[in-house]
Write a structure and sequence with these properties.
The chain is mainly alpha-helical. The chain is built from 14 helices and no strands. The C terminus is likely disordered. It comes from Devosia riboflavina.
Amino acid sequence: MLHYLGTRLLRATVSVVMVVTFVFIVLRMSGDPAVVIMGADAPPEAVDAFRTAWGLDQPIWVQYLSFFKAIFSGDLGQSMRDGRDAVAVVLERVPSTLALTVPAFLLNVGIGIPAGVYAALHRNTAIDRFVMVMAVTGFAMPSFILAMLLVLVFSVNLGWLPSAGQDSWLNAILPIVTMGFGGAALLARFTRSAMLEVLGQSYIRTASAKGLSWSAVVWRHALQNAAIPTVTIIGFMLGGLVAGAVVVESVFSWPGVGRLLVVSVSNRDLAVVQAIVLMIALTMVAANFVVDILYGLLDPKMQSQTRAARA
């Protein structure tokens, strides 16, 4: 088990370094922050002074080494716009993003898993076909299309809900539904497939032949084994919620981390963008690392290997 976790931790570390390196290089190839922030009409002397002050006049490999040295010392730099600490700028937006992502994740799990299980237990019925139609629709529809449809129906035509801002809890309903619908659809689809695969295994028939009730067979045997691939999907979804908030927060003008990322990229605020990307990468890696641990605990093969190693 320790070797298993060590391998996953090493992969996670390499993934974070690769993502941050890619963003670091792309940001510096996409334009000169000094020109964007100072303006095209700024005197050349002022632009050069800005580059010198922020270390942009140094070779990119020197900037790269300085950036990683700063990361290990806990300093991600200051915002080029207002001089504030980049981490503080990002952290003040985190509560707004969590106000969307946490309910959306609960919506994903609370609807997706029960719908997938119910559809698998009632295969080829009208309910099963309805769940699958909704699952395919939610999986195939881009989040910005769904967001605009929800705004058109519930804000423009019906006037029930606000379309943008963060004035009250009503403003969060449409963004949460937008983020939750696609995830619930994906989870329902994978849960149904996992349940159908497990229900066709021989040990399910053996458990039924021993006289166990169908509900006991489902709860004690089917669900636990179907949870292995389902937990993997949940990990990807949990890590991707923060990244997915970029589109949703932009459509609904929600002042969270996602909207801050869009604004910071357009402003070439390098330190803030790098802090956000690092946070997203760490969130996804941490979620997948937890999934790897749960996968090892749920997988009977992994459990038997651990017991054999201890013996």
